[in-house]
Amino acid sequence: MKRRQFIAAGLGLTLGARLAIAAPSRKGPGTAESLAVEVWQGLRRQLFGEREIAIDADGVIGLETPYRAADAASVPVAIRGRLDGADGRYIKRLWLLIDQNPTPVVGVFDFFPESAGADVETRVRVNDYTFVRAIAETSDDKLYMTANFVKASGGCSAPASKDPAAAAQSMGRIKLRIEPPAQPGGAARAQVLIRHPNVTGLAMDQLTRMYPQPHYVRKIAVSYRDRPVMNAEVTFAIAENPSFRFNFRHDGAGVLVVHAEDTEDTQFEARARVDENGTS
Amino acid sequence: MFPRLAGVTVCGVLAVVAARVSGADAPFAVDEVAAGVFVHQGQVADLAAENGGDIANIGFVVGERCVAVIDTGSTQRIGESLRAALRARTELPVCYVINTHMHLDHVFGNAGFEGEAGVEFVAAARMPASLSARAEGYLRTLAHELGEAAAGTRAVYPTRLVEDRLSLDLGGRTLALQAWPTAHTDNDLTVFDERTGSLWTGDLLFERFIPIIDGSIRGWLAAIERLARLPAERLLPGHGAIVAHGGEALAREKAYLEHVAATVRAAIARGDTLGEVLDADDGTVAGDWALTARFHARNLSAAYTELEWED
């Protein structure tokens, strides 16, 4: 396992795969310490060029991750958009990145003025001890970042499915759950689960010495009452059987539509009729 | 064990009881638990340098014509130690090396038996694919956790696969092999020695060592029901002590898994997310198990991602 050294915030802090982090808190190192990670510096240039990225001190986004992953194949991550629209701004785009994954970009999520806030929960594969980052772009084109350190049990291998035969058999099954809004017209919450192996293509078959064809859900589009709620482009860093939980504005009865597409252009769709009370 | 599964390696560092070195030149205890049935009992511990990877129960059954080895340990060195222990007891050839599933602590000693003329490596039909998907990560983990003790270790794949059942004749002694629907893993295989009524359960039974879900919790609970009805005298678990059949061990394992399933089903019914379930985990489990802090949360996670698909 490789060890990556860097200087963080003027401290001689060494973050290696097996090294204890010199931070007493359960959360471990945070956004400030994450800035010096070599991979991030490359990603930053590639994705954002010279644009300024604010360390999120004024509550634009929050990021929830476990400090220690219970199962590196399915690590829950929540990005919480915190703008309430009071200053006329909204978050129009979120990036979710995992520094030490073979493909650090987990996904890019687009939101709209009528979305009920940029808030998304999913589950990811984490290959190593790493920073996980969320970067928000607001409607006035400013960037904000927050980062958490995650210990993925020293995980090094490409996560493998527990039961590939069962996964292949039921591929394409979709579950869509809706939680009614706290008050009428407010934000309702929905979760979509898509049965899909989300094959990374990175784990060589040791018998054939061949790499499998990557096969994963790459696009999600959600609408309510024919208006866009969230569009996402995601990679195989999303765990097997992708799960996304998000908000939508429940401004009356309508149909919530989730459309997904995988890398073989297979289309998946789920619809739920929601009544005026927000129940489906 | 061993859920190095899903990218998950159990690189965790755990306190481990004192070292019994499993080098080829060190004493390697093998007990004859029934006539011709020999078991080396691994430590109830996570993989660590202190135990050299000696954490699973492995052994062999001696017939009149030849010998079958059942599981081979985490490293080539452990496999060689087992072979040396076998050779101290019999001159008969080794016809079969059987792996009860693909986890690294059960298969990576296979290479220690490649020198046996005519040996066949036997496993459940889905074992090669499951091992192959993980082998690279397993080997990295072994090198990382065990260092020099894992030197030379490599994967040796089965040459003969069991779809459902297979009888192996060792000369005057028959082993009945049975492949199971997905339970602890998707390639569990049990080995029943008819002469002594000894059932090698592989990791379908954990004793003292907390059960680890790397397949299907529902499938595992179903397998436990079937195991309980099998006419065996004794059960040889993948981890922990050998027990009489009809005793408490299967019931304890069942109680643990049922508690996990009930906890997770209740959380899903309440609308709790996976993250909320993991946050709420305070380490309360049904029964007294070793390594709970290491594996219980991952069991909750595995159970959640399976059971959320129930209708």
Secondary structure topology:
The complex is a heterodimer of chains A (280) and B (311).
Chain A lengths: L2 E3 L8 E3 L14 H4 L3 H11 L4 E3 L5 E4 L10 E7 L9 E8 L6 E7 L7 E6 L5 E9 L4 E8 L13 H6 L4 E6 L7 E8 L22 E8 L2 E8 L8 E7 L4 E9 L4 E8 L6
Parallel strand pairs in A: 3-10
Antiparallel strand pairs in A: 1-2, 4-5, 5-8, 6-7, 6-9, 7-14, 8-15, 9-10, 11-12, 12-15, 13-14, 13-16, 16-17
Chain B lengths: L30 E4 L2 E4 L17 E5 L4 E4 L5 H12 L6 E5 L5 H4 L12 E5 L2 H20 L13 E3 L2 E5 L4 E6 L9 E5 L4 E9 L10 H13 L4 E6 L3 E2 L4 H22 L3 H7 L11 H16 L4
Parallel strand pairs in B: 4-5, 5-6, 6-7, 11-12
Antiparallel strand pairs in B: 1-2, 2-3, 3-4, 8-9, 9-10, 10-11, 12-13
Helix pairs in contact in B: 4-5, 5-7
Task: Describe this entry's structure for a reader.
The complex is a heterodimer of chains A (280) and B (311). Chain A has 280 residues and is mainly beta. Chain A has a single domain, classed as Immunoglobulins (Immunoglobulin-like, Sandwich), CATH 2.60.40. In chain A, 8% of the residues lie in helices and 40% in strands. In chain A, the strands form three sheets. In chain A, strands 3-10-9-6-7-14-13-16-17 form a nine-stranded mixed sheet. In chain A, a hairpin with a 7-residue loop joins strand 11 and strand 12 (187-194). Chain A starts with a strand and ends in a 6-residue tail after the last strand. With 311 residues, chain B is of the alpha/beta class. Chain B has a single domain (31-307), classed as Metallo-beta-lactamase domain (Metallo-beta-lactamase, Chain A, 4-Layer Sandwich). Helix content of chain B is 30%, strand content 20%. In chain B, helix 5 (249-270) packs across helix 7. Chain B starts with 30 loop residues before the first strand and ends with a helix. The interface between A and B is large, with 50 and 48 residues.
